[in-house]
Design goal:
The protein has helices spanning 41-51, 169-174, 181-184, 208-216, 225-252, 273-278, 281-306, 319-333, 350-355, 368-371, 386-394, 396-399, 414-417, 434-440, and strands at residues 2-9, 22-29, 74-75, 89-92, 96-103, 109-114, 120-124, 139-143, 146-149, 152-153, 159-160, 163-166, 199-201, 204-206, 335-339, 345-349. It is of the alpha+beta class.
Amino acid sequence: FGYVNGVRSKTPSNDVRYSEGNIVVSRAAALTPRAGAFPDAIQLLNRVVDVVFTATFRLEPKPNPESTSLFDDFYSPTLDPVGIRPGTVIYDPNGHVAVVFRVSDDGRIHYVDAHPDQSVTKGEYSKKFIRSRPSVGAGFRAWRPIQLVGAQPDSAGNLIGGRIVGMTNRELADRGAFSTVQYFGNTQVDELNWSRGKFLWRGKLVDYYDYVRLVMAKGELKFHPLDELKNMMTGLCTDLQDRVASVQYAIIKGISKKTHPERLPTNIYGTSGEWEEYSTPSRDARLKTSFKEIRDRVEEFVVKHRQGDSSIEYNGSDLAADLLALYKQQSAACRIQYRKSDGKLQNLELDEVRARLFDLSFTPYNCAELRWGARGQELSACPDDATKRHWYDAQVYLRNQIDRRYDVRMDYTADELMRLPTDVGVREAPDVDVIDFLVRNRD
């Protein structure tokens, strides 16, 4: 067994987790140097936990690495069922890693992931995992094949000595395993213009996320709008239930009773300590992205159906009306419950959360009511003082933001947040109102 245990940023960076890309500077290996000197498994695992983190994934997937000894533990696989399978890693360049555990027949990629609050959740690959520049190694990563060379067996057959050698990207490419299609598309495009890469499916230009579904699906994939909406809302409901547990975890730990720090962390999405463990800005950003994706996806289905797109399969007479009825049904079926500061339980349906989505406080120092964007009578039990309420009001532009920005300074006081520069936060929250769109577009 071997693994990367040291990286450095290609450019000056205070945090290799969010650099412009890293370089491997050291590797470690579990070897038996002499007969009987076996590695201690517990010590080894503890070392791995200490040194392996998201920065060790932030490596550019070059076809031919410059060093054959300081190689990456992962490589960029082909976008197909051979390259993406249970065990494949998904690296989110915003500082998150998930592991694929299943690929369904309709091309959905299911993953499991863990969070700073020690919870473990599951989900489906979607726009929550953004595409990003190749230099940061975002996307799907497969385990690199390794072998032990130069070892000699002792009298009991144990392999002594030797060194770990990894298969190069070029060797993997020769075997049809390595590919950079996920970064550059399946059309010709140079590295500097990676974002212009296009994804063609049977001669037709498609969205990247649809392309992944299409290549992973068994047989010809058709999009059934009602099934797609139900599936997205089911996943979103699971995310909401996970957030209930995360918020409650911080409250049980007494964080909401503490005084709000004088300043926010340098960056709210990537820090350490109490804020990293109990705050939810990254989780909330993914939640907002999911709501926005549902709104955009519903519009896409309606528009494509009206245009006669053959990829949309629907046999009814009014797609928008049917989607609206399903949305309301699924919203009512997804009921979350959080415990207010007075001990009473508050029920919310999915669309009620949607309506207050950009009011949900990501700050663990706020009361449960503000964590869930309460107003009016629902907010009356909140014990937060004027200072904490001021902090809540000051963070409105940061709550409006869907994209997790690691390149922007955020260590402001509450007063400074009230007069933020335009590059920090978002002044107007995006449209996530599915009901409004569907009501206006019924046939």
